[in-house]
Amino acid sequence: MFIVVPRNTPIPTKKYTRLTTIHDNQTIVAFPIYEGESAETKYNNLLGEFKINSIDPAPEGSVKIHVWFDIDADGILSVSAQVESTSLKNGIIIKQNGDLTAAEIQTMIEEVGRYKAEDEKHKAMISLEDLAEKLESLAVDPGRSKPDTKSMKEAAENVIAWLDRNPHADIDEINKRREQLKTTFPILREEN
What we know:
Shape: flat
Radius of gyration: 20 Å
Structural class: alpha+beta
CATH architecture of the largest domain: Up-down Bundle
Strand content: 15-25%
CATH class of the largest domain: Mainly Alpha
Strand order of the largest sheet: 1-4-5-6
Number of strands: 6
Number of domains: 2
Helix content: 40-55%
Order of helices and strands: EEEEEEHHHH
Low-confidence stretches: none
Largest sheet: 4 strands, antiparallel
CATH topology of the largest domain: Substrate Binding Domain Of Dnak, Chain:A, Domain 2
Distance between the termini: 20 Å
Mean pLDDT: 86
Number of helices: 4
């Protein structure tokens, strides 16, 4: 999750972002729309969701999706998305219905502060896992020597196993392992 319209942004406002598919052969993209600032959606308020279906299967990251966020002076949020170079599009209109009281909003803001360290750790774990998966995918390059391939696969498997065994590891240890992986395999520095 990422923040598109930060808290206290003057309205009316329009924001734009470009996304890509995150899996090979992905044919559906869901767009859940949340209110809140936490990196973990469970701490935010789901406002609505829409999907784009029937996307042609393609490699991860190759399908580009344009997304527009428009909040008018009355606080009505319109979100629309279109797959680049196609007519595939969809959207949602969300009318602010006052579901959250001022006290609930203040509680959410306080929770964001409390969970910030947890969010950062969660991001670090995902980053380390992504790096291990990238190493695994680089290992299957037919131009690599067998010893390189073997050591890359083993290192990636060890990182994934370590993450599974240590879900409560602190952020410093996670970042240390990430840097060790990048130092041991400089190709990862080139990829990121």
